[in-house]
Design a protein that fits this description.
Oligomer: single chain
Number of domains: 3
Structural class: mainly alpha
Strand content: under 5%
Distance between the termini: 101 Å
Helix content: 55-70%
Number of strands: 0
CATH topology of the largest domain: Serine Threonine Protein Phosphatase 5, Tetratricopeptide repeat
Amino acid sequence: MNRRRAYEDDGDFYGERNKKRRRVSENQEMEERLETLILRVGENSSSSLESNLEGLVSVLESDLGNFRSKILRILSDCPIKMPEKCTIYSTMVGLMNAKNYNFGGEFVEYMVKTFKDSLKQCQWDAARYALRFLADLVNCHVISTNSLLQLLDSMVDAANEDNVPQVRRDWYVFAVLSTLPWVGRELYEKKESALENLLVRIEVFLNKRTKKHHNALRVWSVDAPHPQEEYLDCLWAQIRKLRQDNWTEKHIPRPYLAFDSVLCEALQHNIPVIHPPPHQDSFEYPMPWVVYRMFDYTDCPPGPILPGAHSIERFLIEEHLHSIIEMYRWERKECAIHLLMLPYKEKIPLEYCIVEVIFAELFHMPTPRYLEICYGSILIELCKQQPSKMPQVLAQATEILFMRIDSMNTSCFDRFVNWFSYHLSNFQFRWSWDDWDSCLLLENEHPRPKFIQEVLLKCLRFSYHDRFKEMMPEGYAKLIPKPPMPHYKYSMEGAGE
């Protein structure tokens, strides 16, 4: 009797199984290819962004039948994980909606679900980026202006709830204000009165809001030469300036303008009514902060002008730089490269913006977002990547910090000491100490000589005492720490007892 199983005699079984394997591998390869195409759209290419978008939309449309859910998921993830490319993906969705109205409706539903889930899971940055993307879809004629205004009004309603933490209310207003630069012009042209009503409601909220936390979060105890504004007050001033300029800004790329003739004929969708989830005691909200300012246009050399403190471009640039640090903080070289590759870098003094943002992160109160050494290593890598400009800008920033150290917060003073000593240790402890000779006339406990003393004490851990005796000018001898000598109590006087 033949004891082999019947299907072993039949080659069809293995043939079918191999076909299934091939189908699975082919589908997987196709999905990976689509994901790569979507993720890399807008990056360096020999052809224009418009032609890339048209070609990619044609590819996605032909593959909708087999990979619909995959395409929906990737297109909804990208603007949240890569917010700097928000307008590129909104243009792509707009072109697909113009060709396939049903897909546009499905995508809006998917994006709304993503937004609601982010709110429920306290993923506040993801929720804010999802709201921004929904707003930008209005520019691409995917979503109607009325339904977006209804959503923004419900966000402001959440900010006016009673018996909830102020940080919750603050976040909802911040989310709305930070979205307006993308869609403000469209709302101004089509729904001016509704937009004005929204702004009036926000202004009423801001006037009633308490700011007891402001003084505790300041880096300096004085406002000269740069006022230390609370973050919502600063953003509100920037939005008011944007409104005075008729909602026109010069920083956000808008590739959908090239396809206006196609997009304007598309049918629009309505966002369903969204009620923000009620507050729960387990929810944790972003804490307030003070906007850090170090430079203004007078500090920069001739060339591109630094945007004013209340220009919306300053907010957009800083937000973009902060997001790059958040995304690439684990790899300092990648982080430095992406910081220096910021779009529109020819229109701004980029090195000054980068240094200001990194020190804003380092001096963030009550604690920095990441380890202090993270920012020090990024600054060192920036100096290596751009040795012609970055070291000079960093030296200028150090000089400004030293001159204002009298009024610096004690915690920030310690972080400044830690960063400067670490930075010197990576550049052979070279510094123009003679420029700070004036501090030698002050008492040793004054913040300026005290800073030098603390820096040298920290540097001693990276080097040896005789090196500092040789390196430092003679006048600084009193600030050099005592040589670290062993303390052996049995050889001291009276040890016999």
